[in-house]
Amino acid sequence: xxxxxxxxxxxxxxxxxxxxxxxxxxxxxxxxxxxxxxxxxxxxxxxxxxxxxxxxxxxxxxxxxxxxxxxxxxxxxxxxxxxxxxxxxxxxxxxxxxxxxxxxxxxxxxxxxxxxxxxxxxxxxxxxxxxxxxxxxxxxxxxxxxxxxxxxxxxxxxxxxxxxxxxxxxxxxxxxxxxxxxxxxxxxxxxxxxxxxxxxxxxxxxxxxxxxxxxxxxxxxxxxxxxxxxxxxxxxxxxxxxxxxxxxxxxxxxxxxxxxxxxxxxxxxxxxxxxxxxxxxxxxxxxxxxxxxxxxxxxxxxxxxxxxxxxxxxxxxxxxxx
Length: 322
What we know:
2 domains
């Protein structure tokens, strides 16, 4: 059976970076791959650049779609992939030349369905910062939920069969957190082998999601994605001995995320919107938080949010140091 790796690369208006990203794939020491570049309705020269590269390398294929977001682009790539394994690389990020070879070797040696590595943040000014999470192998679901480790979407290699058999896809319309939702669903069904090396460079550029201005209507999607992942995993784990413990872990993680989210909304002056969210489902999530496990300063913040006191809430928006 072919050991081909299908690499899925969403791209939108990346004419400045896409050539370097594709070149980092072409420089891989492992050469049995196909690169599916899904242009998500770019308005610049991105598709033309990719097409010119594809004309000289049959392993590179350009797929074009109307702009629908990276989730739709990645799903289109999954539907078109023919390889035994799947990897993802965004059109502005970079792999080290041994990325595919090292992850495939580690995965096969450990007999796992998935492997992942660390990464560097690459800033436009040329500075780099290293992956700062512990590397964890085996059943890493709890570690991922708790935030004890992190798997970047561009740092993994997984059997395509795992994705297909469990019908795992990216949630289209999810503006932030779609990667984490996908990864949680993935590590819930796959044993994982860590490769403790930074073999990917994640570019931090002006205009990228990580540098965009904080918008609560956009960032709420990260919490909604976590809640969807929890619901899917808990249905799958129903009847398993650890199901109740897993439910509590999800519950506490969601509650903490909601708490931090509501506090940041207050800092931005969205008092009316916070009140509306607390009267809806977010209030139920918020109430589940184990306050005794919080640091002292977070306990104080929690009580301020709970108070729903307009004077305190207005003060929060004015004090920049808390």
